[in-house]
Design goal:
Blueprint (H helix, E strand, L loop, with lengths): L4 H22 L5 H6 L6 H27 L5 H17 L1 H5 L8 H6 L2 H34 L3 H48 L4 H11 L21 H17 L2 H8 L4 H32 L5 H4 L7 H9 L4 H33 L9 H25 L7 H25 L5 H21 L7 H24 L2
Helix pairs in contact: 1-8, 1-15, 3-7, 3-8, 3-11, 3-12, 3-15, 4-10, 4-12, 7-8, 7-15, 7-16, 7-17, 8-12, 8-15, 8-16, 9-12, 10-17, 10-19, 14-15, 15-16, 17-18, 17-19, 18-19
């Protein structure tokens, strides 16, 4: 059917409305603290929806259906681990975070080990977030490139500029409220797509899924066997354990998510938001995976070449643009772009907050006024946008599914980061030198694991955690023996 003028109008009007809503909900910020954490507590259910939108919006929308189209439902195993990881965060990490007046996730490391550990963790976060969200920005540019028929660099630049302006105006409060709204918009878009695909088949639901069912694509559990067990990313063990460790790292030590949780201002509310998001994630991934299987049946299992696309991430956007009724495709694309912009805005906010609160303020010799600090924080948002554009352009030519690429990048450093937090929370003996050495060892171990392709990406975080805990614990034990009782 193609993208009609009505669809273009809906996209433009919707983005303007969302930007205005974010600005109004964000309110006026008078200091960097309000800009990054909000003035008053935000309801836990709003934060819950915001977490879901922030972590999966663009990647879930376009990449997960493509992944199911090529494979099956095995990815759902990872989401079971995501829920388990969030439950553990609520029990282990959040009490420590709410015990003091913490402005970032890494402020805890300073209180436990010292300022150098906080700075080290913050720098690692910034580099990881830059790379992972560079992939997210590229993923968001895919549907825009298909719609407007522009090059990927142009689409990336346009999106980054809009997200930067939005973050500058609304602060974290505006970002969170918009995220909460957008989750329902793009999830509703996925449900509408399912209805269209089922209604378009003469035999209804049974006919729509028949082709995928015959191909064995409804398999969820994969217990994995053989010598290549640890190189299979989607087995029960890799999914549950790997997903749990990855979720503990991303939602317990990553400022992008922790910043949102801390806006609730209370431990009980933070737990509800975090664990609730884990339940919603399972539902959301299931919906988008089924969309992929319905698309597989709709296209009769056609290859990427026969579909006229170069990567699986383009399959769902292609269907939205070419086959959904006028108006419906515009609304779904608008929801996708707006949700993605909110996610990018959250990334820019978390990166600038980490620079200001973790790196600048602890070392600043001259104190800024609240107004000067706010201006400085906003200027860093622009710097973050420029860096994200560069990262997105760098990842344009990758052949890997973008959701797997983003999670692989995050897993690269998450192991050392999570291991360091666990050293601080679970053990009293490790000192700052032990923590930094363990953190470094965890990252170096991941360099070797990834370079040699020893295990699949779902195992990355767990391997990094084990190495960090082993090295940090061993060094703390040796220092205790050499120093005596």
């Amino acid at each position: 059917m193609g993208f009609t003028p009505l669809d273009y109008g809906i996209v433009a009007a919707y983005l303007i409305a969302v930007a205005m809503f974010g600005y109004l909900r964000g309110g006026r910020q008078r200091s960097a603290q309000e800009y990054f954490l909000g003035k008053d507590a935000i309801p836990w259910w709003v934060v819950c929806f915001s977490i879901v939108a922030a972590e999966t919006s663009t990647l879930t929308f376009i990449s997960i259906p493509g992944l199911a189209y090529l494979t099956n439902l095995n990815f759902l195993q990872v989401t079971f681990g995501y829920l388990l990881g969030r439950i553990l965060i609520g029990l282990v990490f959040l009490p420590a975070y709410y015990r003091g007046e913490l402005s970032t996730a890494y402020a805890f490391l300073e209180s436990r080990f010292g300022l150098p550990t906080r700075r080290f963790a913050s720098i690692v976060f910034l580099l990881t977030r830059l790379a992972a969200d560079g992939v997210r920005l590229f993923a968001t540019a895919i549907p825009l490139q298909l719609i407007a028929d522009v090059s990927y660099p142009v689409a990336i630049l346009v999106l980054a500029c809009v997200a930067c302006a939005y973050t500058f105006a609304g602060g974290v409060r505006g970002v969170i409220w918009v995220d909460a709204v957008q989750m329902f918009i793009y999830l509703g878009g996925a449900v509408v797509t399912m209805v269209v695909l089922v209604a378009g088949h003469d035999a209804g639901w049974s006919g729509a899924i028949a082709f995928a069912a015959e191909a064995g694509k409804f398999q969820i559990l994969n217990f994995g066997t053989g010598e290549s067990f640890f190189q299979q990313p989607y087995t029960v063990m890799a999914g549950v354990l790997g997903g749990a460790f990855l979720s503990m790292a991303s939602h317990g030590t990553d400022q992008l998510i922790v910043q949102r949780v801390l806006t609730t201002k209370a431990l009980a509310a933070g737990r509800k938001a975090l664990i609730g998001s884990g339940v919603l994630i399972i539902l959301q991934f299931a919906i988008f995976l089924v969309v992929g299987l319905l698309l597989y049946g709709h296209y009769n299992g056609a290859t990427l070449e026969n579909l006229g696309v170069t990567r699986s991430d383009e399959i769902f956007p292609k269907f939205i643009i070419e086959e959904l009724p006028p108006g419906v495709s515009g609304l779904i694309i608008a929801g996708l772009l707006a949700a993605a912009l909110s996610t990018l805005a959250g990334s820019m906010s978390s990166m600038s907050s980490s620079v200001v609160l973790d790196l600048y303020k602890p070392l600043a010799r001259t104190a800024f006024t609240a107004e000067q600090e706010l201006r400085f924080s906003r200027s860093l948002t622009g710097v973050a946008a420029i860096l994200l554009v560069g990262a997105a352009v760098f990842f344009m030519n990758t052949n890997q599914t973008v959701v797997e690429l983003a999670l692989s990048i995050a897993s690269f450093t998450y192991g050392g980061l999570l291991g360091t937090f666990l050293l601080g929370v679970l053990f009293k003996r490790p000192r700052q030198s032990d923590a930094v050495a363990g953190f470094t060892a965890g990252i170096l171990a991941m360099v070797a694991v990834i370079w040699l392709q020893i295990v699949a990406w779902t195992w990355y975080t767990m391997v990094g955690v084990c190495v960090t805990l082993a090295v940090g614990g061993l060094l703390s034990g040796l220092s205790r023996r050499t120093s005596g009782p």
